[in-house]
Amino acid sequence: MDSQVSLQQTADNSIPAESTEHTPRMTRQQTLTLISMASVNFSSMICYSILGPFFPNEAVKKGASQTVIGLIFGCYAVCNFIGSLVMGKYIVQIGPKFMLVMGLFVSSGCTILFGLLNRVPAGPIFITLCFVVRSIDALGFAAAMTSSFAMTAKIFPNNVATVLGSLEIFTGLGLILGPPIGGWFYQSFGYEVPFMFLGCFLLIMVPFNIYVLPNIDSDPSKDSFFRLLTKVKIVLICYVIFTQSAGLGFLDATLSLFAMERFNLSSGYVGLIMLGLSLPYCLASPLIGYFTDKYPSTRSWFIVLGGVSTAVSFSLLGPVPFLHIPSKLWLLIIMLGVIGFSLGITAIPTFPEIITCANEQGYEEGLSTLGMVSGLFGAVWSMGMFYGPIVGGLITQHLSFEWAAAIQGGLALLGALFLAVYYLCHRQQHRRSVGEDSLRTDESTPLLTE
User: Angle of helix 160-189 relative to helix 51-61, nearest 10 degrees?
Assistant: First the structure.
């Protein structure tokens, strides 16, 4: 408990260094777990990200409006939200290994089924089946990701940010390869092949993870999600997570159509544009993870910095009309790169920071607490993924992509400002309490000498 509390103080930055000295080399279990989690992140993200370049265009042909497309993306997030909370609460009872493996199995089956939806009639039937398949897929994804985060934090307790940052390399690779592979397969072979290929690839990960993953036993905790949200700092961090995921959800639902209409690009080139978002995130995550584990006191300001840079880049993505800057393809790609880098700066420190806050509130340092933190993270992320496509799609439909992107940037800026004000007030209060303690010590000294 004391070591977790000291992460808030600059003077105690030696804790991560001490932990690495005690464990200079990973154990076999840690190595296998790292390989397993990397495969889960990569395969899940590559299947998730293939929709962006071509599904909105295909859905329009089937009679879906921009708002309905946003709802299809958004329903995934709603079910992911519910699944993350439930899985996080009952991870001990279900078992983290079983939860992850079954999540992969369900998600792979739904990915294959989604590839068959082009055979159903256009209109309400197509739209309804899109909702059903995406919703079930979201529950499988929630199970896999919640258990993945919790198991990683359990097996690497002293280097959470470093390991998560390293794993995000494979998340970034999945996001990088998903859109161009999906776009290329769609252009070359049609709608079905991308889903069939990647669904089977995800299915192969099931027996691999059954063999590789360790079994982790733990006792269930009586703590709840609601007590976590009684701490202002956790609420503010959750809002920052919400703004980041809302931005990604907004781009998933709207960027491809904007790029096709504005710059006359094909779905394959739109997939390549997505590289501008994924590659910087892939590169930034391990660096930020290592640095924030070595210097835990910097986590807070990295989160603030990432929020500010996200706000600026979203405003220039269109760009926002009142700036009177003409829309250029090179500017779009650069701003996507800044958004990807900002996401790495912001998202990686949030998970270990919430764990620290939970331990400060008296939560037990075990799998049950890690499951709840992982579930909370996944639920808040899903809320943003629900808000981004739906509200972003509505604003894009009634105003424009430029204004919708600017509003999304404003949300990110608001979160960064709130968090910065909290940190400054908290630091000032801490200095004041330290000054009062030292003053009491000075006043009591003469009495002791007498």
Answer: 40
Nearest to 367 by CA among 161, 149, 74: 149
Q: Which of 199-208, 267-276, 286-295 has the lowest mean pLDDT?
A: 267-276
Alpha-helical (H) ranges within 295-366 are 299-315, 329-360
Q: Position 449: which residue type?
A: T
What is the structure's pLDDT at 443? 55
User: DSSP states of 271-290 as a string?
Assistant: HHHTHHHHHHHHHHHHHHHH
C-beta of residue 111 within 8 angstroms of C-beta of residue 47: yes
Q: Are 214 and 32 in contact (CB under 8 A)?
A: yes
pLDDT in tens, 43-65: 777 777 777 667 777 788 888 87
How far apart CA 336 and CA 333 sit, in angstroms, is 5
Exposure letters 210-223 (e unless 16+ CB within 10 A, then b): eebbeebebeebeb
The two tokens of residue 406 are 């600017």
Work out the burial of residue 326: count CB atoms within 10 Å of its CB; fewer than 13 is exposed, 13-18 middle, 19 or more buried: exposed
Q: Of 397, 391, 398, 404, which Cα lies nearest the Cα of 320?
A: 404
pTM: 0.74
Quick one: pLDDT band at residue 23, thresholds 50, 70, 90? very low
Tell me how far apart the alpha carbons of residues 90 and 5 are, in angstroms, rounded to a whole number. 27
What would the pLDDT profile of 148-172 be if each residue is shown by its tens digit? Answer: 878 877 777 777 777 777 777 787 7
Are 359 and 157 contacting, i.e. CB atoms less than 8 angstroms apart?
no
Q: Is 191 helix (H, G, I), strand (E, B) or coil?
A: coil
Q: Would you say 284 and 345 are in contact if contact means Cβ atoms under 8 Å apart?
A: yes
Beta strands in 162-284 (DSSP E): none
Q: Which of 62-66, 164-168, 199-203, 438-442 has the lowest mean pLDDT?
A: 438-442
3 state DSSP class of 62: coil
Sequence-distant (≥ 6) Cβ neighbours of residue 271 within 8 angstroms: 52, 53, 179, 180, 181, 182, 183, 184
Q: Which amino acid, one-letter code, is at 113?
A: L
Residues in the chain: 450
pLDDT for residue 256 is more than 50: yes
Nearest Cα to Cα of residue 247 among 409, 18, 138, 369:
409
Check: CB of residue 344 under 8 Å from CB of residue 313: no
**Token pair listed for 28:** 């076999």
63 sits in the region (left: phi over 0; alpha: psi -120 to 50; else beta) called left
Answer yes or no: are the C-beta atoms of 307 and 349 closer than 8 Å: no
* Alpha carbons 248 and 45: distance in angstroms, whole number: 13
What residues contact 60, with CB distance under 8 A and at least 6 apart? Answer: 69
